Each structure stands twice: as structure tokens, then as C-alpha cells.
Amino acid sequence: MKIRHTSALALIAWYLMVPPIDRQTFKVLNKAPLEQWEIYSRFETTDDCEREINTSVRSFAASQSNPNNPDLIALSLARCIASNDPRVKPIQPKPAATSENPSGQAGWHLH
Q1: Is the pTM higher than 0.85?
Q2: If you compute the radius of gyration of the chain from its CA atoms, what whole number of angstroms results?
Q3: Engineered SS bond to 83: which of 1, 13, 20, 58, CB 3.0-4.6 Å?
Q4: Which residues contact 16 (CB under 8 A, 6 or more apart)?
Q5: CA-CA distance, 76 to 51, in Å (whole number)?
Q6: 3-state class of 15 per DSSP?
Q7: What digits encode the pLDDT tens for the residues 32-63?
């Protein structure tokens, strides 16, 4: 039983997710549903994910002269979410280009 439980846990990744930014008003939409948040990075453990939040926020903040930068604010609100959380949309492979869709672009996002 323990072996199966361990195997199942190994399949779970952790996503560092940031809230969306309205690029017209430059407001961070931190109250947006998690389905609309963006996947910033993927990690094997929650500890690695949390460590990246701390490192990225400090590093990005040090490089910014504007503490109200929406990207910095969004990053400071980042959360680590398990890949099996039902609020997270699965990452889809990019569709192949076809004659009807020469660019291969789809109507989905990594949210």
C-alpha cells in the first residue's frame, strides 16, 4: 500500500502560479479564479516551488526601481499549486499546423 501511495505522489508536480494582469489597466487580478492564473514554472516538490517564489521575488524586486510594477506584484502574490488540483487546467500539447489552422495556434492557454 505504501509503495502505491509513494508512486502516486511522485506523479504530482507543483506549479508556481501567478495571478493574471490586465494589460490595459496594468492591474493585477489577484481575485481572479485560479483557472485564470498563469503557470510560471513547474517543480517536483512544494519546497522547491516555495523556494523559487522567495528567490524570484527578491531577485526581481532588486532589479526594479518601481515597487508598483505589476509583474513584481503578481510574482509576490504567486502560489504553489499541486498539478492535480481540479482548478488547474491541464497543459495541452501545441496542436500541429493544418491547412485550416496554418499557425497551429489553439484557443486554449496555460491557465
Answers
A1: no
A2: 17
A3: 13
A4: 39, 40, 41, 42, 43, 49, 52, 53, 56, 78, 79, 80
A5: 13
A6: strand
A7: 999 999 999 999 999 999 999 999 989 988 99
